[in-house]
Structure formats: structure tokens, C-alpha cells
């Protein structure tokens, strides 16, 4: 019985190292999303930090600031969803079948 417990602990430590490596790799990834046919582009890293916002000059209309705001929101939400989807796909492999609500 004790040998099984030691073996299980080693397996858990191994899995934890793999999870940490996968998370580090996710954090280093770059994600990009655009809205308005490329008029607004938002870039973020896997930590959900926005690293760049690119706005085409022709979309800047002082009389229609709302449209620009909407495009920025749409692109930002899209890039955050991409990060969530990639995180779920990558980290979900470690929690498959464990039935742990709230994990990733």
C-alpha cells in the first residue's frame, strides 16, 4: 500500500510539472483579434494582458466615437475568448475525468 502511495505522489508531482510548463507556454503565447474588417486589432498575451491596440486612421471619426468604442470592445472580447479557449484546451487535458468544478 505504501509503495502505491509513493508512486501516486510521484505521478502527481510529474503532472504538476507538466501543468506548470503548459501554463508558462500559454503565458508566452500571443493572441490577436480584429473587428470592423481589420479596422481595430487587439493583441494580448496568454496572461490576458493587452499588449497592443492598433486602430486604422480611417475608422477614427470624431462624430462617431461610439462605433470606435464598439470595435475596440469587440476585438478585445474576441482576443480574450481566444485565450480562454486555448487555456481550456491546453489545461483541460490535466483535469479530464477528475470532476473538479471550477478548475480552468
From TrEMBL:
The keyword Cytoplasm applies. InterPro entries: YbaB-like_sf, YbaB/EbfC. SUPFAM superfamilies: YbaB-like (SSF82607). GO terms for cellular component: bacterial nucleoid; cytosol. Gene3D superfamilies: Nucleoid-associated protein YbaB-like domain (3.30.1310.10). Keywords: Cytoplasm, DNA-binding. One of its GO terms (molecular function) is DNA binding. Residues 1-14 have a biased composition (Low complexity). Pfam families: YbaB_DNA_bd. HAMAP family: DNA_YbaB_EbfC (MF_00274). Homodimer. NCBIfam families: DNA_YbaB_EbfC. Belongs to the YbaB/EbfC family. This is Nucleoid-associated protein GCM10007971_19350. The lineage of its organism: Bacteria, Bacillati, Bacillota, Bacilli, Bacillales.
Amino acid at each position: 500500500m505504501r509503495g502505491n502511495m509513493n508512486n501516486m505522489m510521484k505521478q502527481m508531482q510529474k503532472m504538476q510539472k507538466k501543468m506548470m510548463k503548459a501554463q508558462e507556454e500559454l503565458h508566452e503565447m500571443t493572441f490577436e483579434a480584429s473587428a470592423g474588417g481589420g479596422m481595430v486589432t487587439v493583441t494580448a498575451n496568454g496572461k490576458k494582458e493587452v499588449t497592443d491596440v492598433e486602430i486604422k486612421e480611417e475608422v477614427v471619426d470624431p462624430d462617431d466615437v461610439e462605433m470606435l468604442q464598439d470595435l475596440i470592445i469587440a476585438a478585445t472580447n474576441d482576443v480574450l475568448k481566444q485565450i480562454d479557449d486555448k487555456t481550456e484546451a491546453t489545461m483541460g487535458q490535466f483535469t479530464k475525468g477528475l470532476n473538479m468544478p471550477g478548475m480552468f
